[in-house]
């Protein structure tokens, strides 16, 4: 024990305080969730993820009835019909209402986006045979079999996409709804024109080998930040009036824009359609609440239904007048956007700062107490957790792990450059500590101006082992905004409005003047379209493997790249060929994705989302025609950064510097998995398990050399310089390509869950990772078990380059709960975060859980139904995550000291 610790104990003892009481004080003071939250969570835990055809039916009906209508109006009218005809479901004890579908955990197909999957499913189901996988990514993606996932068909329930259950009697509706889109869905049309590209065959090879994880049309929107300003400022009735005023002003007038000027009138006509749909949707809930109140005998429940009736009627027409109405309005708009497309990563943004004026008003006027606000926030968490994304297994399982990344950011700076932290954000954290749900995930925009007590509150939440809040460097995010969006006019004020879209996609924002309670409050919100829909997850270690195998995938025997036929007689030759294959990949994938997204924005332009973005509404242009303020928002997503860097370090050290082996011998060892069984054979997907074969002695020396090669995360310049070179090379490479908006691409460094399936399809790698096991997670997390010198050496390695040059970086850490025990532990955790931020790190997040608990939960998941862990940018229930990702999380390096 140090002298300082002894002195602290003496001081506390002199005051009659036991040090053990200090250690336990914080944890003991967290109140339980409200009774309403408990009751609704009990229901949630019993629910299965359900697909139904109500929304597709009404969308289809309206779409085909309006054949020949202007496409913007036709799309908005179809979405409005779908929303306004949805059956309203209100559970007892709810205060915040509305769902994606009539089912609490519900989703629905989007055959107008991708018809082949649903047609194949429908044809197979009608013939009562198993449906084929949509693509290779589906085949290698594993969905968690616990919780609400319906991974297998049973009884009268059919499993779709290894996750959603649909009743057999709805299959004919799926068939009838999907059939009209055969050959004319976004998938079909974009594929038709993609086939005209000279490199189309290369594109197919990349997709079939899972070097690239999925196409852009699969989740066209999301990875962006919502903006609730327009409905909060005006209300739906006033928005309809403004649309009429704007139509009278601009209809038939091109203004100074001969290309898009005329479309302004059509935009406002479309906005009228979608606003009427949103308003009717709210009124339907008001009527349902009125009916439930009329038949309810319990006085408390009856009063609650009456309140819901009032709130829903008011927001169906007027701007919100109080906190309850304001947060319900944001839920309505948020769900409206998530229903436009198969949606993931529609982030909530800095909600506390947006709703702070309503909170202040209600507290001052005695309308609500803090405890009543916390209850609303607890119930809000449940509502957001229920959002599902209906997509293929490769997306829902292989990428999302069932999460939809509705990120709520806190902190940062306000328009004037002062701390943006507001009192409501303390309550948002408190609600997250009491009612522990996966969504919304919370993120702190760490700034040196952030109040210390708020940082401690956030750290005390993180240490509970919930996986949130994660921590982002606010100054780093602002630097990225100014660099990337400066050419579009980004200034310092707007840079301060940034936050996270999706799990970790830095997204631009802007401040808008909200008039409420007799004053003007400048509130932040999203100012761009999707900040993610570009090239979706390149398996970089797999590409290195293909360099060594001359472009042939030895796992499948198929050629992925044209043979380079190079001698590879130097490390530089290997690295340069890797860059060439990367360039080849981005070139064709970007062209195809540009076609996909261009077709999407022409036929399925966002309606609700184009209403919400203030610049779209001001200019009369939807998101697809660059109505947003900032449009340089499309990325290239990478996977397996540190597996790649460690592999390059091993090749450089063992083959070229020390000349222990030839590159041919290294390649042979990789192809033969160093003499061990593969993860496909053992069913274990983390590197802590190896089962030898008769070939093990042959590769023993080369495997040992690969194990002992220098590894990232230990402050070793030899390997860290490779990371630095890679990061700056990627900046130059990615920025040389343009998106469908005609703006340069940028690098997005997150793994989400793709390090599972993309690791699955990759042979053994030169860093000693075995075939089929997961890649290293995130982008700057050390490969499990390889960081030997502690946290601060890891931070030293991670910050050898400027994190502000890319959209993000991602570091996941696992701490034992004892490392952050008590008030002192909270301070230690905050010190870890602060140390990384001050060195220039962009992001860090924590799993604070004992690995023994995770192993036990893997064996008996039913006993751990509410156990949550952090994967890579998001929190999810352990039992709903596939085994490859579970294995990876278990084997992450666990630090016993913070």
From TrEMBL:
Keyword Lyase: yes
Molecular function terms from GO: lyase activity
Residues that bear Glycine radical: 873
InterPro entries listed in its UniProt record: Gly_radical, GRE, PFL_dom
One Gene Ontology cellular component annotation held by this UniProt entry: cytosol
Xref: PROSITE patterns: GLY_RADICAL_2, PFL
Domain PFL positions: 35-770
Domain Glycine radical positions: 778-898
UniProt entry keywords in alphabetical sequence: Lyase, Organic radical
Superkingdom to which the source organism belongs: Bacteria
Protein name, as recorded: 4-hydroxyphenylacetate decarboxylase large subunit
Lineage, opening ranks: Bacteria, Bacillati, Bacillota, Tissierellia, Sedimentibacter
């Amino acid at each position: 024990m140090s002298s300082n610790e002894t002195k602290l104990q003496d001081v506390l003892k002199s005051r009659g305080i036991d040090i053990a009481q200090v250690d336990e004080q914080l944890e003991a003071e967290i109140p339980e969730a409200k009774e309403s939250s408990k009751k609704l969570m009990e229901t949630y835990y019993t629910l299965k993820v359900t697909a139904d055809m109500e929304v597709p039916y009404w969308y289809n009906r309206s779409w085909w009835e309006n054949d020949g209508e202007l496409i913007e109006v036709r799309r908005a009218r179809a979405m409005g019909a779908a929303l306004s005809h949805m059956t309203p479901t209100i559970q007892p004890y709810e205060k915040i209402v509305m769902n994606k579908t009539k089912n609490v955990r519900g989703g629905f197909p989007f055959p107008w986006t991708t018809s082949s999957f649903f047609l194949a499913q429908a044809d197979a189901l009608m013939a009562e045979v198993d449906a084929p996988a949509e693509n290779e990514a589906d085949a290698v993606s594993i969905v968690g079999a616990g919780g609400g996932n319906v991974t297998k068909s049973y009884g009268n329930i059919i499993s779709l996409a290894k996750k959603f259950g649909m009743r057999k009697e709805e299959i004919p509706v799926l068939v009838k709804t999907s059939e009209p889109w055969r050959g004319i869905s976004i998938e079909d049309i974009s594929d038709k024109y993609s086939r005209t590209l000279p490199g189309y065959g290369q594109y197919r090879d990349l997709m079939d080998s899972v070097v690239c994880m999925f196409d852009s049309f699969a989740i066209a929107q999301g990875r962006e930040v919502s903006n609730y300003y327009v409905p909060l400022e005006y209300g739906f009735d006033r928005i309809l009036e403004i649309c009429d005023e704007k139509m009278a002003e601009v209809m038939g007038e091109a203004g100074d824009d001969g290309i898009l000027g005329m479309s302004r009138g059509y935009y406002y006509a479309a906005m009228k359609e979608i606003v009427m749909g949103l308003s009717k949707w709210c009124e339907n809930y008001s009527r349902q609440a009125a009916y439930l109140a009329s038949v309810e005998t319990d006085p408390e429940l009856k009063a609650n239904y009456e309140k819901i009736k009032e709130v829903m009627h008011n927001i169906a027409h007027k701007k919100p007048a109080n906190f309850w109405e304001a947060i319900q309005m944001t839920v309505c708009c948020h769900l409206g956007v998530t229903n436009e497309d198969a949606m993931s990563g529609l982030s909530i943004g800095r909600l506390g700062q947006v709703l702070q004026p309503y909170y202040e008003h209600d507290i001052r006027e005695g309308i609500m107490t803090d405890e009543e606000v916390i209850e609303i926030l607890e119930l809000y968490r449940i509502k957001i957790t229920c959002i599902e994304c209906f997509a293929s297994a490769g997306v829902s399982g292989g990428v999302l792990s069932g999460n939809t990344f509705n990120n709520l950011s806190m902190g940062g700076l306000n328009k004037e450059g002062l701390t943006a932290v507001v009192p409501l954000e303390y309550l948002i954290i408190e609600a997250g500590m009491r009612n522990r749900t996966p969504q919304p995930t919370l993120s702190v925009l760490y700034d040196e101006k952030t109040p210390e007590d708020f940082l401690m509150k956030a750290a005390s939440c993180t240490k509970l082992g919930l996986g949130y809040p994660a921590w982002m460097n606010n100054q780093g995010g602002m630097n990225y905004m100014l660099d990337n969006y400066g050419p579009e006019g980004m200034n310092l004020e707007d840079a301060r409005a940034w936050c996270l879209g999706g799990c970790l996609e830095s997204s631009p924002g802007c401040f808008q003047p909200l008039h409420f309670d007799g004053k003007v409050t400048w509130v932040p919100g999203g100012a761009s379209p999707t900040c993610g829909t570009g090239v979706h997850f390149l398996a970089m270690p797999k590409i290195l493997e293909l360099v060594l195998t001359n472009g042939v995938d030895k796992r499948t025997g198929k050629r992925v790249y044209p043979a380079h036929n190079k001698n590879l007689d130097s490390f530089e030759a290997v690295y340069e060929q890797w860059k060439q294959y990367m360039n080849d990949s981005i070139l064709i994938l970007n062209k195809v994705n540009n076609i996909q997204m261009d077709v999407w924005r022409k036929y399925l332009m966002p309606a609700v989302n184009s209403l919400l973005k203030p610049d779209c509404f001001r200019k009369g242009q939807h998101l697809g025609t660059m109505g947003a303020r900032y449009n340089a928002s499309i990325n290239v997503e990478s996977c397996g950064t540190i597996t790649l860097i460690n592999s390059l370090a091993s090749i450089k050290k063992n083959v070229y510097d020390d000349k222990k082996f030839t590159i041919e011998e290294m390649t042979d060892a990789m192809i033969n998995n160093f003499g061990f069984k593969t993860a496909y054979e053992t069913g274990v997907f983390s590197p802590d398990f190896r089962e030898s074969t008769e070939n093990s002695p042959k590769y023993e020396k080369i495997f040992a050399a690969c194990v002992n090669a220098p590894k990232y995360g230990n402050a070793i310049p030899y390997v860290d310089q490779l990371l630095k070179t890679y990061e700056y090379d990627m900046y130059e490479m990615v920025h040389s390509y343009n998106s469908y908006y005609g703006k340069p691409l940028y690098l997005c460094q997150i793994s989400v869950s793709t390090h599972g399936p993309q690791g699955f399809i990759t042979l053994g790698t030169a860093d000693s990772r075995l075939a089929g096991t997961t890649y290293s997670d995130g982008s700057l997390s050390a490969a499990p078990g390889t960081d030997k010198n502690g946290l601060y050496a890891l931070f030293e390695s991670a910050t050898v380059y400027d994190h502000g040059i890319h959209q993000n970086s991602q570091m996941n850490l696992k701490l034992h709960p004892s490392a952050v025990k008590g008030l002192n532990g909270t301070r230690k955790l905050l010190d870890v975060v602060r140390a990384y931020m001050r060195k220039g790190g962009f992001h860090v997040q924590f799993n604070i859980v004992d690995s023994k608990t995770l192993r036990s939960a893997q064996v008996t998941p039913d006993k751990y139904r509410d156990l949550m862990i952090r994967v890579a940018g998001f929190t999810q229930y352990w039992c709903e995550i596939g085994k490859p990702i579970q294995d990876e999380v278990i084997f992450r390096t666990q630090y016993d000291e913070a």
